[in-house]
TrEMBL record:
It comes from Amycolatopsis coloradensis. SUPFAM superfamilies: Glyoxalase/Bleomycin resistance protein/Dihydroxybiphenyl dioxygenase. It holds the Pfam family Glyoxalase. Coiled coil: none annotated. This is Glyoxalase.
Amino acid sequence: MDISIHGSFLPQTDPEAALAFYRDLLGFEVRNDVGYDGMRWLTVGPPGQPVSIVLHPPAVDPGVTDDERRVISEMMAKGTYAGILFSSDDLDGLFKHLAEADAEIIQEPTDQPYGLRDGAVRDPSGNLIRIQQRV
């Protein structure tokens, strides 16, 4: 059996800000842009790689209660609701690029005792993005 990761989901609260971050700042390609009932789902991914990220409106599932929507909104605002892990072969250069674009840097690149160098940034919706580089 051969299983691979096709995609992942991250909530977004502002499609235009999400596009500016993932497409314009990180260089991801837009693979799908779907609007429905006043909402927008964006599918983005690194050029040349088959994996995608679906940036979706938060808490739109019909089974989500108003209280759950409130908690999700609060967690997103704090950056504790969703996250994703990227890798880069030039972590310091990437973080310099992110800082110059006024991205919200959470942790500057740091050597870790487990053989990686990593840092963290938040996207415009508050999602935590950790980025690693093998040392």
